[in-house]
Amino acid sequence: MREATLRDVATRAGVSIRTVSNVVNGYAPVSDTLRAKVETALNELDYRPNLIARNLKQGRSGMLCLVVPELDVPYFAELARAVIAAGRRHGYAVMVDQTDADPVRERELLTRNSRLTLFDGLILSPLTLSAQELRERGNKTPVVLLGEHLFDGSFSHVAIDNVSAARDATEHLISLGRTRIAAVGDQPYRTGETAQLRTAGYRQALERAGLPFDPALVRPTERFHRHLGATAATALMALPSPPDAIFCYNDLLALGALRGLLTAGVRVPDDVAVIGIDGIEEGEFATPSLSTIVPDKQQIADLAVESLVALIEQGATPAPAEVRASHTLLARESTLGRA
Amino acid sequence: MREATLRDVATRAGVSIRTVSNVVNGYAPVSDTLRAKVETALNELDYRPNLIARNLKQGRSGMLCLVVPELDVPYFAELARAVIAAGRRHGYAVMVDQTDADPVRERELLTRNSRLTLFDGLILSPLTLSAQELRERGNKTPVVLLGEHLFDGSFSHVAIDNVSAARDATEHLISLGRTRIAAVGDQPYRTGETAQLRTAGYRQALERAGLPFDPALVRPTERFHRHLGATAATALMALPSPPDAIFCYNDLLALGALRGLLTAGVRVPDDVAVIGIDGIEEGEFATPSLSTIVPDKQQIADLAVESLVALIEQGATPAPAEVRASHTLLARESTLGRA
DNA sequence: CACGATGTCTGCATCGTTGCAGAGCTGCCA
DNA sequence: TGGCAGCTCTGCAACGATGCAGACATCGTG
């Protein structure tokens, strides 16, 4: 059966379509008698407003779109949850989509037939898409970027300070007295800005502590997944002079590393201390529990939604803002001091 | 700047709106000369179709909505990924929403102003919402349910066979020679049908093996989260006669239990074997790695989307189908046989 | 050359809703 | 009693797209 429309309700109640609309929206004053009649008809027909029509008329949908590379990466799942909650507080529904970490899928966002036109705004955590591409293909949908992509000033942008986050992580390892500190997750070859910033922070910390930089201790990984962390850790321990600590560029790599070290018979933290970034819940229950740098996801989500809503509601584009979210060090078992 | 409309393009190209539409959609034959003119104008104005308008006219949006309780629960995140992929194969975009495991939020789906009218169909993994409520509030949007909610025949429904999954898990523990097997995750008090089915499977396995059922070994948990698993495991080990194996109703509980046992100085699997359900990736990297019952998430997603698309596209409702997805046992370190 | 068939192109109506302007009624005051 | 507010209520137009029917030009055929 077809959904009831305002017209159906109006006919049944013997009033004008407009009056039904007024009752539904509470816009204009409606007499009690008419209101009662209309409400009866509304219930009898189980009327539900056609939001597509309303959206067309109003030129807005009240929906934001969050696009992340992979929804089953815990960091993105936790972030998505926070963004949905933040959107809700601002009166927007947030729909989540993922690109499967596929550059082609990411670029589909820019195409003529992208579903983005359905949304009032876009929060995008890009993997390979550059701000430049985004600007050139000039989608008029307001956009806020998440994560550390080349900020070229054309988009608002929310991220933690990745250099200092990585520096904090590394300095924490140094504070334990570790001197051969490995880094897992560099991405020098592609649009891996986040990774490169973390490498920079890692090197800063070494320098400040007067520790030598050994390129053999820096392991690139194509992606930030557990099994690559395990592989990298295994490879590191096979070095002639293996590390006594590993800084992983995210928690998944670190959790994989924990597992790889265990399999290799390496004790954590006694032989090798491990730290990650992301503060995902999984790390709390790992064995040993994982030390990490915790980005304030709630804050990231809030700031992103706030910026986006500002862009949407102030028609005229306010200057794109580069917003820094905070992060904190959370030391757990994987970086306990030696007994 | 306002988005360009068909009318803008038509004016610029000196043709009718209809012709522009034909070019955009490739519907009707258009001469090369006109097509060229139109395409120039399309590019100059960076035209993008207004999908809201198109959807209104066509009476469909090409979008499905997936609603889960919590997106940062790995099972749901992994499922969401599979559903998005399945939707895509069927030509639908899937948007994900979550209810924060809040019964009130779940019921909002049924209200007059639910955003569901925007979607062609709904895939719902309900927590407390019953099929009856869903039916009574009679949303006309096609719905497919996921998970084991009371199946009353009014909705299509995809789930694994929870009784046999729980039985398989328990029998696996029994096959290791364990005799005092605990169950963590029962939900006897609320609409916890899934939990209750798993309890039934657990008891079946005990019976078949001729093992006694000890109510003290069945721990209810309000939700299926890691910390509750840890608490439950700790409590179990404090019993006068503690278990030698624990069957957790999902992997998060099991991962929490692993952690709780470790903290209590209990060795897994030597002292206590542990198994979960869900097959989330996290379990592979846990220490020890987690044995689990793996539901075929890809199959669940495919079946759900297929059923839903059938409902949508065959206007007339085909009989609601109860579909069983398959599951397999994955034995890992947490249930290794004793040395 | 007349005719129908084909191939292009256009205008109108429509999807279901809301903005707007104004119609009709009532009551109040001069 | 006339006129003006103020309150309800209504009809029309519009959001931007597509379905449909038909206009017009061109072509081939007898």
**Share of helical residues of chain A:** 40-55%
The CATH architecture of the largest domain in chain A comes to 3-Layer(aba) Sandwich
Low-confidence stretches of chain A: none
Shape of chain A, please? Answer: elongated
Average per-residue pLDDT of chain A, rounded, comes to 91
Order of the strands making up the biggest sheet of chain A: 2-1-3-4-5-11
Structural class estimated from helices and strands of chain A: alpha/beta
What is the tally of beta strands of chain A?
Answer: 12
Helical element count of chain A?
A: 13
Q: How widely separated are the two ends of chain A?
A: 72 Å
CATH H-level superfamily title of the largest domain in chain A:
Response regulator
Radius of gyration of chain A: 26 Å
Which fold name fills CATH's third level, the topology of the largest domain in chain A?
Rossmann fold
Strand residue content of chain A: 15-25%
Q: What do these coordinates show?
A:
The structure is a homodimer of 339-residue chains. With 339 residues, chain A is an alpha/beta fold. The first copy, chain A, folds into three domains: 6-49, lambda repressor-like DNA-binding domains (434 Repressor (Amino-terminal Domain)), CATH 1.10.260.40; 63-161 and 297-326, Rossmann fold; 162-295 and 329-335, Rossmann fold. Helix content of chain A is 42%, strand content 17%. Chain A is built from 13 helices and twelve strands. In chain A, the strands form two sheets. In chain A, strands 2-1-3-4-5-11 form a six-stranded parallel β-sheet, covered by helices on one side. Chain A has a six-stranded mixed β-sheet with strand order 7-6-8-9-10-12, with helices on both faces. In chain A, helix 9 links the parallel strand 6 (181-186) and strand 7. In chain A, helix 5 packs across helix 13. The longest helix of chain A has 17 residues, at 193-209. Chain A is elongated and about 90 Å long. The first copy, chain A, starts with 5 loop residues before the first helix and ends in a 9-residue tail after the last strand. The model of chain A has no long low-confidence stretch (mean pLDDT 91). At the A-B interface, helix 4, helix 5, strand 2, helix 10 and helix 11 of A face helix 4, helix 5, strand 2, helix 11 and helix 12 of B. Chain A binds a DNA duplex (30 and 30 nucleotides) through helix 2 and helix 4.
